[in-house]
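Table S2 (text version). Query chain:
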Amino acid sequence: MARPAATPPTATPPMLRRVNAGKLLGVLAKAGVMTGTGLIEATGLTRATVHAVCNDLISMGWVVELDPHRDDTSVGRPSRRFEYNAGAGCVLGIDIGAGKTTVLVADLRGETVAKVVRSVPGDPTAAERTGIVHETVVEALETAQVTDAHVLAAGAGVAAPVDRDGNILVDDEFWRRFDAGLSRRLTELHGWPVLLENDANLAALGEHWRGEGRNVDDLAVLLASERFGSGLMDSGRLLHGSRGGAGEMVYLKLVEGVGDTHGIARIARDQGAAAVADPAVDTALRALAADRPVTAELVFTAADAGDKVALGILQHVAARTARVVATLGILFNPELVVLGGAVAEAAKSLLPEIEEQLAGFTSTPPRVAVSSLGDAIVSVGAVRHALNYVEQNALDLTLSCRPG
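Corresponding structure-token output:
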């Protein structure tokens, strides 16, 4: 026997008012100054509804009304003008990396107010890592001259799979290092919600918002420095998988010509160090390094100067990276793959070789670009993650600067 269809909830006036407020706030958050007429056209709401809801949002602190503007051709009463109150609060973008922690403080349009970076010494315990993040947050808030009361949410990225509920997948020893109860502890210390997410996923959000991936909804961002990790967007939506593992690159251990998850910086550094250690190898890297450890940056520098050994290393790195990009192209068919992380700027020199190799690996090669966001790619995405939360939950949040 078929069950009767569920009766949809009755649309009460308070419910409609809330829906309309969310719609208007979403438009204003993404736009500049808008008139009442512009909001009517953007939302399809009536003039009376737009003005009534804007009055509510003004009283809550989310919207400010500007002086009316009249030009020489206008007739009658000038239009009311409204603007999203970007100074009504702030959000944090936190990148919790293995070697350093970065905290951005941003206003509600995502403009950076302060940035603080702290190194992470050695291999800290979970409690020590949480302490470092807390200290970095405190310094960032002081630099921005704001208090915890102004913070509406924080996005935080970790180098581990995170499911849709913010839980870290701990099936790997490296991932377990980040399972520190961080979000709960920071909320206890500061009072604002902490939204945990995978760092590569946040990198994809950041690129889609303010990087090379703007207006690209089928996107893969490949964090490529020490370890490969990818964030994936399909039709503008982040892919998580059942336990947060979508985009994890452990499968590279099974890919011929790749063999592990080591990224561009690590491979270049390791092969450069091996060349310097071999007295039979004639390379400019030896003089560049002198008594210092060989770094990926030194390999790129030597290659720019025409050193044959360094050029050979980067040719190998490019061919290996092309195989990694090809697997993403075959499995997920993105329009664009963006190489991100600290190595991104140097990796521009690898693009011609990567693109040439790609054509031999897949019949649907994606475009490849390098990120313009530099080492802020994850923290910028974390800001966007926090802003998404604020915009979706604005009517349930209390602003410290609320009028009255």
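Notes on Table S2: The first helix runs from residue 13 to 30. The chain is about 40% helix and 15% strand.
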